[in-house]
């Protein structure tokens, strides 16, 4: 649609069980910035937004904590991953492992393709794909 309204991709929301642990992972391990943290007492939840730049410039991740939730979420078979681009995926993965990150899929060429990828797991088990930007065709 040539006259489509100006959509802009803002964020992806994931529900987390321990907001401080998730914020620490996305900021201290993945190098994001905590952009804002909003409590909603009426809904008994908190949203924390993390990313590599301000929300009016970059898509970010919205971490949602439902107060009192203890049962792990079922991530399910539909969700795949969030993806981050990196230069020198091998050096980045070595550094992430030093920071205690779990990397269930070690860096290397993707199956059936040539781009080098890895998968990191966040505290709730969500997969974060690392894409070696310097290996993209
Ligand atoms: C700020 C904006 O980006 C939001 O996503 S807030 C939207 C709001 N979120 C929640 O209620 C989260 C807690 C909820 N228990 C959950 O786990 O989804 C939302 O979805 N509101 C629903 C509505 O109809 O307003
Ligand atoms: Ni949202």
UniProtKB/TrEMBL annotation:
**Is Cell inner membrane set as a keyword in this record?**
no
The record lists Zn(2+) as bound by 62, 81, 129
| SUPFAM superfamilies in the record | Glyoxalase/Bleomycin resistance protein/Dihydroxybiphenyl dioxygenase
The residues responsible for catalysis, as annotated, are 129 (proton donor/acceptor)
Family matches, as InterPro entries: Glyas_Bleomycin-R_OHBP_Dase, Glyas_Fos-R_dOase_dom, Glyoxalase_1, Glyoxalase_1_CS, VOC_core
Entry GO terms, CC: cytoplasm
GO BP annotations of the record are:
methylglyoxal catabolic process to D-lactate via S-lactoyl-glutathione
Q: Which UniProt keywords apply?
A: Lyase, Metal-binding, Zinc
Q: Which reaction does it catalyse?
A: (R)-S-lactoylglutathione = methylglyoxal + glutathione
Per its UniProt record, the required cofactor names are: Ni(2+); Zn(2+)
Q: In the UniProt record, does the keyword Lyase occur?
A: yes
Q: Name one GO molecular function term.
A: metal ion binding
- Kindly state what the record says about how the cofactor is bound: Binds 1 zinc ion per subunit. In the homodimer, two zinc ions are bound between subunits.
Protein name per Swiss-Prot or TrEMBL: lactoylglutathione lyase
Organism for this UniProt entry: Mesorhizobium plurifarium
Gene from which this protein is expressed: gloA
């Amino acid at each position: 649609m040539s006259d489509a309204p100006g959509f802009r991709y803002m964020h992806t929301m994931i529900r987390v069980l321990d907001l401080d642990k998730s914020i620490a992972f996305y900021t201290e391990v993945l190098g994001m910035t905590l952009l804002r943290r909003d409590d909603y007492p009426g809904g008994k939840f908190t949203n924390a937004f993390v990313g590599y730049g301000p929300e009016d410039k970059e898509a970010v991740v919205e971490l949602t904590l439902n107060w009192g939730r203890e049962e792990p979420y079922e991530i399910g078979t539909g969700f795949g991953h969030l993806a981050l681009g990196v230069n020198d995926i091998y050096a980045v993965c070595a550094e992430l492992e030093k920071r205690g990150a779990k990397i269930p899929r070690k860096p290397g060429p993707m199956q059936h393709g040539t781009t080098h990828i890895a998968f990191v797991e966040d505290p709730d088990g969500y997969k974060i794909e690392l894409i070696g930007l310097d290996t993209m065709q």
